[in-house]
Amino acid sequence: MTRFYAFGITPGCCVPEYNAVRGWRIYCTALLAGARGIVGENIQAVEIIFLLLLTFVIVFAALARRLETPYPIVLVIAGLILSFIPAVPRIVLNPELILVVVLPPLLYAAAWTISWRDFRYNLLSISSMAIGLVAFTVAGVALASTRLFPGFDWRTGWVLGAVVAPTDAVAATAIATRLGLPRRATDLLEGESLVNDATGLLALQFGIAMVFRGETPTVWEGLSRMLYLIVAGIAAGLVVGKIADWLEGFIDDAPIEIAFSILLPYASFLTAEAIHASGALAVVSTGLYLSRRSSQFFSPDVRLQAFAVWESLTFILNGIVFVLVGLQLPYVRAGIEGMGMRQLIIHGAIFSGLVIALRLVWVFPGARLSYFLRRHLLKHNENRPTDRQLFVVAWTGMRGVVSLAAAMSLPVMLAGGRPFPHRNLIVFLTFSVILVTLVLQGLTLPKVIRALGLAGSEGGECEESEARRIVTEAALEELDQLRDEDDDRFRPVYEDLEQHYRQRLSALGRHETDGHDGGDLYVRYLQQQRRLMGVERRTAIGLRNAGRIRDEVLRRIERELDLAESRLAQMREEEGPPGDSPLGC
Predict the structure, then answer these.
(1) Confidence band, pLDDT 50/70/90 cuts, at residue 389
(2) Which of 158, 183, 163, 159 is nearest to 173 (CA)?
(3) pLDDT tens-digit readout, 249-293
(4) Of 116 and 18, the one with more pLDDT
(5) What is the per-residue burial (b if ≥16 Cβ within 10 Å, else e) of 162-192?
(6) Rounded to 5 degrees, what angle do the CA atoms 554, 558, 564 make?
(7) How far is CA 478 from CA 296, 474, 502, in A?
(8) Residue 410 near residue 426 (C-beta atoms within 8 A)
(9) What was the pLDDT predicted at 9?
(10) Residue 206 contacts by C-beta under 8 Å, 6 or more apart in sequence?
(11) What is the separation, in whole angstroms, between the first and last Cα of the chain?
(12) Do the Cβ atoms of 105 and 311 come closer than 8 Å?
C-alpha cells in the first residue's frame, strides 16, 4: 500500500538539537512538500487524500454531534478504526507540518477566545500547571521509565516525559466546554494548555541534547534558557500584535482583514522562532492582545464574517489532525521490533496510568500552594478550591497532536550513525497516552462531573445578565435625552424604541407589565417575531421567483433577516429571567 505523507516531508531527520521549526526554510519546505511530497508528482492523489480526510471529518463530526460526544474523541476512535481497513490509503503524519502550519492558527484561535482578565487573574495557578506540572511529569517519567521499560535510562525517560507533558489546547477547549465543566476549571485548563507547549518543547530540547551529545545542562542553563524562551516569545508576539493593530487602521475591507488575520499567527510564530524564542507563546500573546483590541478596529460586518471563517477553519484543521492521529497506529506499531502486541498494550496501559497518576499527585498540593500564594501574597479574594473541583482538573489532562508530532520529530540517528534509543517505542507510548487520555478520560468526564455534583455549579452568568441590564438602561437614558432634543413629529419612533428596550428589561427580571411576568411576555415576543421573520423571508423569495426583484436584492434582505434571526436564536437560548446579581460576581 502506498504511504502518503500528510502534507509534508519525511519525519525524523537527524538533528543535533530539537527545534519546533527552523525558520522560513522549514516553512517553505513543508509547503512545497505539501504540493508534491505526499505522493511524488501526482497532484490528483493529493486531492483524493485531502477529500478523503475532509469526508472523514464531516461524517464522524456529524456522528459525534448525534452521540452528543466531543468530536476529538470520536475522530480519534474513527481514525483508529479506519487504520485497520486495507482499502484506506496509508497517511503518515508529518510532525513539522503540524508544528509549522497547523499549530499556529489553532493556538491563535484558542487565545482569541480566552478571557484576558481571567487569564491574568489565574496566572499563578496556570503557571503551577504549565511549568510546575510539566517539570514534575518530566522528572517522574524519567525516574519511573528506567524501572518500567528495559533499556531505558533517565535521559531517554526525560525525552519521553517531555513529549507527553504538554496537554492539548484543542482537546481541552473542545471537551471542557462541551461537557459543561465549571467556568473556573475551564479557565485554568485552557490557560494551561496554551502555555505548557513552550515548557514541554524546551524540556524536549534539553532531553535530545542530553541523548545526542551525552551532556547534562546545568540548572542555570535551564533557567536562563526558559526565561529567554518566555520573555522573548511574549515580546515578539506583542510586537507583531502592535504592528497588526496599527495596520488595521488603514484597512477597511472584510476579505482583506480576514486574510490578514489568518496571516498573523504564522508571522508571530516565525518571528519568534527566528530569534530562537517560543513560537507558541508568541502566537498566544498576539492573539490575546488583538482580541482585546478587535472591538476598536473590527466593524460589525467584519466581525461576523471573521468569526464564521475562523470557526470553519479551526474545525477543519482540528478534525483532520485528530483523524490523522488515529490513522498513525499501523506506522507506530510497524516500527517496533521484538515486542508482541500484547506486551506493547501492557506497556501502553502502564505508562498511561503513570502519566495520569503524576497529574493527580501534582494537582492537589500544587493547587493548595497556589491558593495560599494568591490569598496572602496577591491578596486575591479567592475561595479555597474543593477536592471535587481539583479532581476534575486533575482528570482533564488530555494529550493531543502536539505530543505525537513531537515524538515523531525525534531524530532517527545520533552522531556516529547510532539509532536514537527506543525512538519507535517512545512514539508508541505517546500514541497510547493520547488515546487513553482522550478516550478514557474524555468519555468518563461527564459522569465524573455529575457524580461530584459540579455540573453547572459555576454558571457564572450573573455578570452577563447584569451587564445586559446596565447597557439597556444606558440606552434608555440616551433615548430619553434624544427624544427631548428632537422634533415632536418623530415621537412615534422613540415610543417604538422605548418599548423595545423596556421589553428587554422585562426579560432581565427587572419589570413586570400589566400584572404579567415579563419573562413570559418576552418569550412570546420572540416566538411571534420569529414567525413574522419567516413570513418576510418567504415573501422575499416569492418576489425573486416571480422575477420582481433581483437575486442581489434578495441576498441583502436575507442577510438582514439572518442577522436578526441569529440574534433571536441567541436570546431564545437565554430566555427566562436570570438572577439579579451584582456586576463582577
Answers:
(1) confident
(2) 183
(3) 888 888 899 999 999 999 999 999 999 888 888 998 999 999 888
(4) 116
(5) bbbbbbbbbbbbbbbebbbbbbbbbbbbbbb
(6) 155
(7) 22, 6, 14
(8) yes
(9) 31
(10) 158, 162, 217, 222, 225
(11) 59
(12) no
**Closest C-alpha to 321, from 573, 574, 6:** 6
Domains of the chain: residue spans and CATH = 3-451 (1.20.1530.20), 465-573 (no CATH)
CB 23 within 8 A of CB 16: no
Whether 21 contacts 27, CB under 8 Å: yes
Among 362, 344, 336, 357, CA closest to 437: 357
Crossing angle (nearest 10°) for helices 387-395 and 442-451: 170
Please state the rounded mean pLDDT for residues 486-490.
Answer: 79
How far, in Å, CA of 437 to CA of 522, rounded?
Answer: 44
The answer for 33, left when phi > 0, alpha when psi is -120 to 50, beta otherwise, is: alpha
Q: How far is the C-alpha of 277 from the C-alpha of 281, rounded, in Å?
A: 9
Q: Please, are residues 157 and 142 in contact by the beta-carbon 8 Å criterion?
A: yes
Q: What share of the chain is helix, strand, coil (3-state, %, to 5)?
A: 75, 0, 25
- Indicate whether 328 pLDDT > 90: no
**Cell numbers standing for residue 505:** 428589561
Say how far apart CA 188 and CA 363 lie, in whole Å. 12
Q: CB neighbours (10 Å) of residue 372?
A: 11
Helices (H), 182-278: 183-213, 219-248, 254-274
pLDDT tens column, 378-388: 878 777 888 88
C-alpha Rg value of the chain to the nearest Å: 27
Task: Provide the H-helix boundaries in 377-400.
Answer: 387-395
Q: By CB neighbour count within 10 A (0-12 exposed, 13-18 middle, 19+ buried), where does 520 fall?
A: middle
Closest CA to 21 of 95, 93, 91, 92: 95
| C-alpha distance from residue 560 to each of 166, 373, 565 (Å) | 44, 51, 9
Residue 137: predicted pLDDT? 94
Distance CA 124, CA 486 (A): 53
Q: What is the DSSP string of 354-395?
A: HHHHHHHHHHHHHHHHHHHHHHHTS----PPPPHHHHHHHHH
Separation between Cα atoms, residue 192 and residue 168, nearest integer Å: 9
Give residue for cell 485528530.
Answer: 322
Nearest to 432 by CA among 359, 362, 350, 358: 350
Q: Would you call 181 helix, strand, or coil by DSSP?
A: coil
Decide: 320 and 122 in contact? Cβ < 8 Å: no
State which H helix or E strand residue 310 sits in.
helix 300-327
Q: How far apart are CA 281 and CA 198, in angstroms?
A: 7
Find residue 513's DSSP bridge partners. 516
Residue by residue, what is the 3-state secondary structure of 411-445? CCECHHHCECCCHHHHHHHHHHHHHHHHHHHHHHH
Please report how many Cα atoms fall inside a 13 Å half-sphere around the Cα of residue 99, on the Cβ side.
28
- The three cell numbers locating residue 159: 525525552
Q: Which of 114, 209, 105, 104 is CA-nearest to residue 159?
A: 209
C-alpha 408/C-alpha 476 separation (Å) is 60
Q: Which long-range contacts (CB under 8 A, 24 or more apart) does 239-248 make?
A: 239/271, 240/264, 240/267, 240/268, 240/271, 240/282, 240/286, 241/268, 241/285, 241/286, 241/289, 241/290, 241/293, 242/289, 244/286, 244/290, 245/289, 245/290, 245/293, 245/297, 248/297, 248/298
